[in-house]
Design goal:
The structure is a single chain. The chain is α/β, with parallel strands linked by helices. The protein has five helices and seven strands. Strands 1-4-3-2 form a four-stranded mixed β-sheet, covered by helices on one side. Strand 3 and strand 4 form a beta hairpin. The mean pLDDT is about 90.
Length: about 180
């Protein structure tokens, strides 16, 4: 007579060392997904459009899009994959989320500030934040800038933070000078 084996207890999956296949932001547009993707790809040097999908006739009563019109555009900016979706007017971008462009030099800050801000809302610019012409928020900032604000109790941090609060586009030299207690 065969004996019944007791099942081994199940192990709870460990979060340590867990991997995710990929993280990829999906940006919701009313109907400008392809235009936006082409714009973003034109701004970043390591960028490309990977794929474009189109709406089928099926489901038109739900999606409301003409068959053959652009549904999604998959694109890559500096190694990060994005999807732009023409989902309709239901959702709009908000300042609650932004994409950071961390720059090594002032020339890079100047370039991305100008390119991404072109046609965007001039009133939505403060402390390195800007909105592009599609309403997406970006932070154009120096790489490693968090070091200036690491010790909230220090006078150096207070000076650098006060200087930043007065800026629209960030100025690396002025931030460092303020941190050191020197004029720009």
């Amino acid at each position: 007579m065969a004996t019944k084996r007791k099942a081994a207890p199940r192990k709870k999956p460990s979060r340590r060392g867990a991997t995710v296949a990929a993280l990829s932001p999906c940006l919701w547009f009313d109907g400008q997904a392809e235009e936006a993707a082409k714009f973003y790809v034109s701004v970043f040097p390591k960028a490309r459009i990977v794929n474009v999908t189109r709406y089928p006739a099926v489901g038109k009563e739900v999606h409301g899009r003409a068959p053959g019109s652009v549904m999604t555009v998959d694109f890559v900016l500096n190694g990060l994959a994005f999807t732009a979706l023409n989902g309709g007017p239901l959702f709009k971008f908000s300042e609650a989320i932004s994409l950071q462009v961390l720059c090594r030099t002032q020339a890079e800050i100047d370039y991305y500030w100008e390119k991404l801000g072109e046609g965007g809302d001039e009133r939505a610019r403060q402390c390195g934040w800007l909105k592009d012409r599609f309403g997406l928020s970006w932070q154009v900032a120096p790489a490693g800038w968090a070091k200036l604000y690491a010790d909230f109790r220090s006078k150096a941090t207070e000076r650098a933070f006060a200087a930043m609060m007065e800026m629209k586009k960030l100025d690396i030299a002025a931030l460092k000078a303020a941190y050191k207690g020197k004029g720009a």
